[in-house]
Amino acid sequence: MDRPAIIHKTAADLRLPPNLSDYAATCRDFSWAAQAKAIRDSQGLPNGGLNIAFEALDAHAGGPLRDKTALRFVSRNAAPQEFSYAELTRQSKRFANLLRELGVSKGAKVFVLAGRMPQLYIAVLGALRHGCVVTPLFSAFGPEPIITRINLGAADLLVSSEELYRRKLQGRREQMPTLRHVLLVAEEGSRSVCADPDTLDWATLMAAASDEESAAPDTRPEDPALLHFTSGTTGTPKGVVHVHAAVLAHHASGRYALDLRPEDRYWCTADPGWVTGMSYGIIAPLLQGVTSVVDMEEFDTDRWYGLLEQERISVWYTAPTAIRMLMKSGTEQTRRHDFSALRFIASVGEPLNPEAVWWGKEALGLPIHDNWWQTETGAIMIANTAAFDIKPGSMGRPLPGVEACIVEHLEAEGAAPQVRVIAAPDVEGELALRVGWPSMFRAYLNNEARYRKCFAGDWYLSGDLARRDADGYFWFVGRADDVIKSAGHLIGPFEVESSLMEHPAVAEAGVIGKPDAVLGEMVKAFVSLKPGFKADEALRRDLLAHGRKRLGAAIAPKEIDFLPKLPCTRSGKIMRRLLKARELGLPEGDTSTLEGGA
Ligand code: ATP
Ligand code: MG
């Protein structure tokens, strides 16, 4: 179906005037120094201190939001569990005091391995308050990826649910020599009975700890706060270090990119095991004083539509992979639900095909706002905000305080990259950000050389290719690693995938370059189908013809294979490098983050 190139915002789309009403003026007047001062002046720590947990909780705990629900945990079989801002503050102080009593000092590394349960949130916030560096581990990781990360990060303390610990780590303590303490959270209402010696019981220690502040947090803006591992889409996951100053960017982006405000009921579907679930599932919503709904269950189409309706979600932050799964099940189900509370939907993690933006409008009543960032950037950098029209397929425009551009690489002597900014619009090149935003990563764990290679002069180089149009919108082309060179053309897989997604049979598409004697590389697509479609020759021919018609012969896929499901990372990204390795019979490389893998 041919669609217009732009979705103009209507009053019905907006419901409320956006937080960011005059985009150009806000960008012009914005400064990170002013943001920092505003925080210091309102509820900052003395002597220029800054602490993520303090900003997220204490700022509200003494004010009008103190009794408001901060977190609401919902699950299939138990009653919802709610924590007010005041209660969450108390619990986080309790955990900080518990750490102190265990002799865990500032700067110690606290790893968390648990499902989306309240104790995980309390441990994260309490450890941040205490000045520890927090690393979440995704709960579906197998033993190897968990142990590798614990050792890479030299974890001092692990908080885990007893169930996950028993399944994955019991009896392997000697493989994690840096761990001084393991704290186990048992089933609700019971005590840990783990057979491993040297494990501690969360409930007992928490009950014994005080929930009074013994001393205000003493972290500085540049103290490390978070260590996140990347998704591992392009290779071995990297450890990415963030500092407490990142909270400034969490604050600004929660307001401007997600348009959050205290009256919202907000649902971020990302797991806190990944950076999105930490920055926007825990920190940013608390900073904005919203009520966050946390679903403790796994993805389920019916359940998700039901939650949006029954929980009266007003702002929803999700990912293309989830949207594709919802799209796959058709629009029939959506008609049975009332999504009238929804006023803003955003997506991150992968390119959002135009088809998905439109699906939002048709099935949920609102277009979906794509935004772009990375584990390294710590917070949303480029976004379709509530304040301007959407060009479906574009990632939007840089947020206030963010300067983005497209650069080309120059031949450089030595290791340091050199780049030139491409001022002209519509030219493809590497997406770069001007250094200086507060949530920029401060290191790759144990890899200073790799860190340095990410910078050229004042620019951070993202490793993603994009172009900027004359209106200042950025368009994702592909990861530098994934771009296909075919008969002299540079082809971004995203464009090809988006056009395949327009075909009614296609649920997911992943495109690679396959070595070809004539073309250099040939465009090859892998697709999975929606229910009711048969993977046969007729459909293959139809898809090939659809591609040629949409894209022209030079860019269209020359080969299409059907797969029941495309390989994805656990954070929901299509792993094109794996499609390619399998196609070429090459080693698969690091698959620790493969969905359904180890
Ligand atoms: P690794 O660095 O280990 O290969 P990763 O890059 O997938 O994994 P993340 O930091 O979780 O790890 O993901 C950031 C990347 O995700 C971006 O560099 C980009 O390639 C992709 N991405 C995120 N949001 C978008 C978006 N809105 N549009 C297109 N791509 C996106
Ligand atoms: Mg990356």
Kindly describe this structure:
Strands 2-1-11-10-12-13-14-15-16 form a 9-stranded mixed beta sheet. Strands 17, 18, 19, 21, 22 and 23 form a 6-stranded antiparallel beta sheet that branches. It is globular, with a radius of gyration of 24 Å. The protein folds into 4 domains: about 130 residues, Rossmann fold (3-Layer(aba) Sandwich); about 200 residues, ANL, N-terminal domain (Rossmann fold); about 80 residues, Roll (Luciferase, domain 3), CATH 2.30.38.10; about 100 residues, GMP Synthetase, Chain A, domain 3, CATH 3.30.300. It is of the alpha/beta class. The mean pLDDT is about 95. The chain is built from 18 helices and 28 strands. Bound molecules: adenosine-5'-triphosphate (ATP) and magnesium ion. The site of magnesium ion has 2 residues, from loops. The site of adenosine-5'-triphosphate (ATP) has 24 residues, from strand 14, strand 22 and strand 23.
